[in-house]
Write a structure and sequence with these properties.
792 residues, alpha+beta, Pseudouridine synthase, ten-stranded mixed β-sheet, 14 strands, 10% strand, disordered N terminus, disordered C terminus, PsdUridine_synth_cat_dom_sf, PsdUridine_synth_RsuA/RluA, pseudouridine synthase activity, mRNA binding, Pseudouridine synthase RsuA/RluA-like domain-containing protein
Length: 792
């Protein structure tokens, strides 16, 4: 090979002097020989030739090094490529564009995104050394390492510097947008691509579809998918699966199943992603049987179910209460060789409500071992570990200390959803983490407020995560004043921005209400129920008394609207409702703001409900609620005699779907305060009862009813949480659920405190008149007792 190199070198350097010709012939010859090794993928021989040049006192030039680097990079030898770059610097050989492209490509394939960015930083001022391939490799490396935001920043920097970018560079950047759910940025890149006179290909449009799907824009996704034939592109498997993923956002499981079948009709190969998208869509829509069916069909199609598909099926079974089927799916996945990390296994145990202490303990031991080995690097895994530990009711100082040590330093990398999950998981145990997470939130909120453009596009989710984090810190008794103040400020700014925005488009649900107003009034007049009315009207706020049997928000039942709701009345021009007209308030049409209602109240119960006319008032009250500053007091009549010494119920609450909530050692942390007012008897069978005043620190679904049943004192005439026998006997003297929210204390927008108290409804007052005190006197508890608990 060396003789061939010398001959080739002679042909190139025939104009040099004899002494120069000998040296140059060697340099060119070796370079050509190394290039031949590169083409034959013989990187060890290329290294040997380069070493031999140095032994022969022949100084390698940039072409010799570049060919050797390219040969090493092609075979994944990034360490050797890095060493060669160092040798070039020592020998003062300046790398060229191809050299740097080889370096970036080698580092990128191995996920060494830090080295990639270091190389680009060194040469960012030399446009002659940069090319589109290097840019695409850098973005791809960052995306694979879940550092997509750094990759996009790099792409945008090079774009501003005027680097000529190719279709590959744009496609890689758009794919990075899909990882971060940045669908608007993806659309901007598509526009920039056309401005640069580059023709988008099917890869481009697939990346756009994936970005729209990741951003929850299912309408735009399906529209673009439908336009592909008009753009002269035939959809491939990626096009189908990305569109199916988008349909999860709208619970369009039938459409996802149809697209899954269309893959086969298009003579394309169904893959695990298409099956996974079907299973996830069925899970989101509550179609647990369909989800399990698709999971069982995967082995028939010679596909091994992946973790995502199995987890979606488990979630579907858990949401429908089919825990046994979910456990079977988990066991089947283990038997098929599916390897779960400790975090994934603990997630599955928490979702399936596994209460076996041996299994939970073994899972925690495995998690502790993995943490000690530093196997948890992903923030999603870390937040899952916090959440799962809390849901399983498992506590360990070693576990908490290790979790705190691993997660505090990574807080800037957490998403807002991961932060709120972790805070609820750490509430009460991870004190250091809770303090550090609050500082991180304060920093993020200050960044939002100082930004020239408030991030309204993602505000709904962000608002939920911020308030959830404040609630978790309040529950743990660790909410800092700086965090509370930051939350109040950002909610004030967001509320003002939304109130200033003209919001004219009503939701489909409320449009139907308004369109059928006469029908609604007619039904109400026919049924003549006890009507809701406003007990207190404050600027931008209403305190409404809800009768039993009424919903707070309108909902559909059997394909028809349930019109007996406070929600429908707030949007009605009806004097019958005795509620001030609210159709001019945009918040009453916004499902994302729960139509202005601050909280709900169970259908069989009665009591006070707060409603806001403006976003600013709604957000101000939401902050007070999350900070534990709103007092909600309840009158409750329970079975049995509650111990006078019991002042508090601390029991986790777990619920899914339409099933009753239940309290146990697992579930979401929940706290209720109670005070015994009177022990007595009632009814012909001399049933023992307790008149109780209750307030709550958390607002879990059916929390009071579930908590009281948990301690053996269910609410009288509660068909969901009391025994069937007691429900039948209660009917003789108690016409409905004996729970009434009688008091709400809060502050208005001016900071003035309002303490609104309602009288007992007539039906409950009559029930209490029947109660005889155990001392023998007739009960006179017809007025609300003083409240106690949080905020009292």
């Amino acid at each position: 090979m060396r003789s061939v190199a010398y001959c080739s070198g002679a042909a190139i350097s025939n104009e040099l002097t004899p002494s120069e010709r000998k040296v140059q012939r060697s340099v060119f010859g070796y370079s050509l020989a190394i290039s031949a090794c590169q083409k034959l993928s013989k990187w060890p021989q290329a290294i040997d030739l380069l070493d031999f040049m140095l032994l022969q006192a022949v100084s390698p030039d940039v072409y010799s090094f570049t060919s050797t680097v390219t040969s090493c990079a092609a075979d994944g030898q990034w360490q050797l490529a890095a060493a060669l770059l160092h040798d070039m610097q020592e020998l003062q050989v300046l790398p060229n564009q191809v050299t740097y492209a080889s370096f970036v490509g080698s580092f990128g394939k191995e996920g060494k995104w830090q080295r990639v960015l270091d190389v680009l930083y060194q040469i960012q001022s030399r446009r002659d050394l940069l090319d589109s391939f290097s840019c695409a490799a850098a973005v791809s490396a960052c995306t694979r390492a879940t550092k997509w935001h750094l990759g996009l920043r790099c792409f945008q920097t090079l774009q501003r510097q005027g680097l000529t970018l190719s279709e590959v560079g744009f496609n890689t950047a758009i794919s990075a947008c899909s990882k971060g759910s940045l669908w608007q940025e993806a659309m901007d890149l598509l526009h920039d691509m056309r401005v640069c006179r580059l023709a988008p290909d099917l890869i481009t449009y697939n990346a756009i579809i994936a970005s729209l799907a990741a951003g929850g824009q299912w309408r735009k996704t399906t529209h673009l998918f439908g336009r592909l034939p008009a753009l002269s592109f035939t959809p491939n498997v990626i096009s189908f699966t990305s569109t199916m993923v988008a349909l999860k956002a709208c619970e369009g499981w039938q459409d996802a199943v149809m697209l899954h079948g269309s893959i086969r009709h298009a003579l394309l190969q169904q893959n695990d992603i298409s099956f996974g998208a079907c299973i996830s869509s069925c899970e989101k829509s509550g179609q647990w049987s369909e989800a399990v069916k698709f999971l069982s069909e995967m082995p028939v199609a010679r596909l091994r179910p992946d973790m995502t598909s199995t987890n979606a099926a488990i979630s579907a079974c858990e949401a429908s209460g089919n825990w046994d089927l979910g456990i079977s799916s988990l066991i089947a996945s283990e038997l098929m060789g599916q390897t779960r990390s400790a975090s994934s296994f603990m997630w599955a145990l928490a979702r399936l409500h596994i209460r076996d202490p041996v299994v939970v303990h073994a899972a925690m031991v495995e998690a502790i071992c993995d943490m000690r080995k530093h196997l948890f690097q992903d923030t999603r895994q870390m937040s899952t570990m916090w959440w799962a530990g809390q849901m399983l009711g498992a506590s360990s100082n070693v576990y908490t200390d290790l979790m705190t040590e691993r997660t505090v330093a990574r807080l800037p990398d957490f998403t807002s959803k991961e932060l709120v999950m972790s805070l609820w998981g750490a509430a009460g145990t991870g004190n250091v983490f809770v303090r550090s997470a609050q500082q991180e939130w304060v920093h993020r909120i200050q960044t939002m407020l100082s930004s020239s453009r408030f991030p309204m596009d993602d505000w709904q989710q962000m608002r939920s995560h911020i308030l959830g984090s404040l609630w978790a810190c309040t529950y743990a008794g660790m909410a800092s004043e700086a965090f509370r103040l930051a939350v109040k400020n950002v909610m004030l700014v967001a509320g003002q921005a939304l109130d200033e925005t003209v919001f004219t488009k009503a939701s489909t649900l409320l449009s139907r209400c308004l369109a059928r107003g006469q029908t609604i009034q007619h039904r109400i007049q026919q049924e003549k129920p006890c009507m809701p009315y406003v007990l207190s009207e404050i600027p931008d706020l209403l305190v409404i008394l809800k009768p039993p049997g009424w919903e707070v928000e309108a909902r559909w039942e059997g394909g028809e609207m349930n019109y007996r709701s406070l929600h429908s009345l707030l949007t009605e021009e009806s004097q019958e409702s005795q509620i001030p007209l609210g159709s001019s308030a945009p918040i009453f049409f916004d499902a994302g703001a729960t139509f202005g209602f601050l909280h709900r109240l169970d259908v069989p119960s009665s009591g006070l409900v707060l409603a806001s006319r403006t976003y600013q008032a709604y957000y101000a009250l939401s902050v007070q609620l999350a900070a534990g500053e709103i007092l909600r007091g309840y009158n409750v009549l329970t079975h049995g005699w509650v111990n006078h010494q019991r002042k508090e119920i601390n029991a986790r609450v777990y619920w899914r779907g339409g099933l009753p909530s239940r309290s146990s050692g697992q579930g979401k942390p929940s706290r209720s305060f109670l005070k015994v007012i009177l022990h007595g008897y009632v009814g012909v069978d001399v049933t023992s009862v307790t008149v109780t005043a209750v307030s709550i620190a958390t607002g879990r679904r059916h929390q009071i009813r579930c908590h009281l049943a948990h301690i053996g004192h269910p609410v009288c005439k509660d068909d969901a949480y009391a025994s069937q026998e007691s429900g039948s006997s209660d009917w003789l003297w108690c016409p409905r659920n004996a729970l009434h929210r009688y008091r709400i204390r809060f502050r208005d927008m001016q900071g003035l405190e309002h303490d609104v108290v309602s009288p007992l409804p007539v039906d409950l007052a009559e029930v209490l008149q029947k109660v005889t005190s155990k001392t023998g006197s007739q009960s006179s508890v017809c007025t609300p007792p003083p409240a106690m608990g949080m905020g009292s």
